[in-house]
Amino acid sequence: GIARCSRAWPLLHFWYLGVLHVSLGAMSRTAIVTGASRGIGLVTARLFCAAGWDTVSVSRTRPGGDSPPGLRHVGIDLLERGWPAELDSWLAAELGAERRQLCVVHNAAQMPKDSALGLSAQTLRDSLELNVVAPAEMNRLLFPRMGEGSSVLYVGSTLSGAALAPPVTAAPLG
Q1: What's the DSSP call for residue 170?
Q2: What is the pLDDT of residue 173?
Q3: How does pLDDT run across 39-61, given as a tens digit for each residue?
């Protein structure tokens, strides 16, 4: 059952009740979940599948053997150049231009564990790309297909709370 899918169930329950039970008649309902190969993303995909949504996982790796029946996978690395064209081609082939109720769940993210002085410029670029640029680009691709009742959700794990912690302090120079 759904309640056994993960320790994340209590956290997702409120969201599940509020978003998944919206019905707009005959309009197609599709959930697109980034980072759905494991963790909170996979739990989210399970919830959408259980609620009868056409559910798509967008992630580098295919969801594991415990993925729900009917979950479709698009193998895309959001840090690789050219992924928007690849996703746009998949969307055109699989979803067409029809407007539908879309729920886009931006779950893929990274938060480097290091001090401000220890992070490389490339690590910071990758974090910005995955956490900010990729969701904005995906929204741009999906917006023309969004019909009434569509939504865009950004998921933060317990790590996202670290972004709210006091800023890193440095010793005085000199």
Answers
A1: -
A2: 44
A3: 899 999 999 999 999 999 999 99
